[in-house]
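Students often ask why inverse folding is considered easier than folding. One informal answer: many sequences map to the same fold, so there is more than one right answer. In these notes we will look at a single instance of the problem. The structure comes first.
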C-alpha cells in the first residue's frame, strides 16, 4: 500500500477548503438578499417613493400622471430627459419641483440604481415604485432585486407600454453580473456596457 505524500494531502485539503468556502459564499448570497427583502417588506409594505428610469418622455409623462394619485410620494427620475423638458411635464400635472428629484449621474441601467442608493438610504426609503418601459422591465427587475435588495429596499414594478421587443438575455445576464460586482466591490463595471 502506497502512502500519499504530505504535499498531495495538503493540496487536496486546500482544494476542499476552497470548495467549501465557495459553497458557503453562495449559500450566504442566496439567503442574504431574500432575508433583507423580507425584512423590508414587513417594515415598509407600501411604497414610500417613486423611481423612474429615465431617458424617455413617455416614462416621465406616465410618472407624472401616476404621481397625481400618490401626492405624498417623492419622485426620483434617474438620467431622464433634460430639465427643460422634464419639469414642464410634472408642472402640467400640478406636481411642484420640490417633489421631483432629477438625477443625471447614471450612465446606464445598473447605475440608475447604484447612484441613488445612498439618497434612498439617507431618507430611510425601503420600498419604491419602479417605473420603466415594458421592454426594459425584466432587466430592470433583475438589477433592482440585487442592488436594491442587497440594501434592504424592495420595489413594486410598473410598466409603460412600448412597441419595442424585450431585451436579450445576454444584456440581462451581463447586468446581473455587474450588479453582483457592485455588491461585492462597489464598482459597477460600466465600461462593460459598451462591449454588449
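Output (designed amino acids):
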Amino acid at each position: 500500500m502506497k502512502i500519499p505524500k504530505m504535499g498531495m494531502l495538503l493540496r487536496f485539503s486546500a482544494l476542499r477548503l476552497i470548495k467549501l468556502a465557495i459553497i458557503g459564499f453562495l449559500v450566504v448570497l442566496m439567503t442574504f438578499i431574500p432575508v433583507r427583502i423580507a425584512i423590508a417588506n414587513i417594515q415598509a409594505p407600501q411604497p414610500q417613493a417613486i423611481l423612474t428610469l429615465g431617458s424617455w418622455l413617455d416614462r416621465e409623462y406616465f410618472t407624472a400622471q401616476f404621481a397625481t394619485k400618490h401626492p405624498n410620494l417623492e419622485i426620483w427620475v434617474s438620467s431622464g430627459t433634460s430639465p427643460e423638458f422634464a419639469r414642464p411635464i410634472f408642472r402640467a400635472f400640478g406636481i411642484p419641483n420640490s417633489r421631483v428629484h432629477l438625477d443625471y449621474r447614471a450612465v446606464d441601467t445598473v447605475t440608475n440604481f447604484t447612484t441613488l442608493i445612498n439618497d434612498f438610504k439617507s431618507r430611510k426609503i425601503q420600498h419604491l415604485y419602479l417605473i420603466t418601459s415594458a421592454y426594459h422591465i425584466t432587466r430592470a427587475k433583475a438589477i433592482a432585486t440585487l442592488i436594491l435588495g442587497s440594501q434592504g429596499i424592495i420595489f413594486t414594478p410598473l410598466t409603460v407600454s412600448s412597441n419595442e421587443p424585450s431585451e436579450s438575455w445576454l444584456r440581462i445576464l451581463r447586468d446581473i453580473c455587474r450588479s453582483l460586482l457592485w455588491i461585492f466591490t462597489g464598482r459597477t463595471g460600466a465600461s462593460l456596457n459598451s462591449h454588449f
